[in-house]
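Action item from last week, closing it out:
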Amino acid sequence: MVAGNFSYIFYMALFAWVLIIIGWIIFHKDIAKHTKAIKKLLLITILLIFPWDNLAVYYNVWKYDTNQILGLYILLSPIESILLTVSVDLALAFFTIILYERYKKAEKHT
């Protein structure tokens, strides 16, 4: 399915944001315990992806199809690129925290 200028946003919503929302709804107590770690992860993610993505676009390592993005940029990076990276990292952080908390609870019962 192609959604024109909303393609990247659509796929982020479908594959990352749905998982983030479901994870938060079901496991918000476990995730809330690790807010500090999540904030650090997101800061590191932004500090690493922003220069990397801009350099890659500048040197034509990759480019973005203007027919599939909104046209909002931070320097050379479309906002979707940054949102996607942050969304995927957040989804993975949630998944890791959920597994960690489940493991800790299983260890207590052993």
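Closing note: The mean pLDDT is 90.
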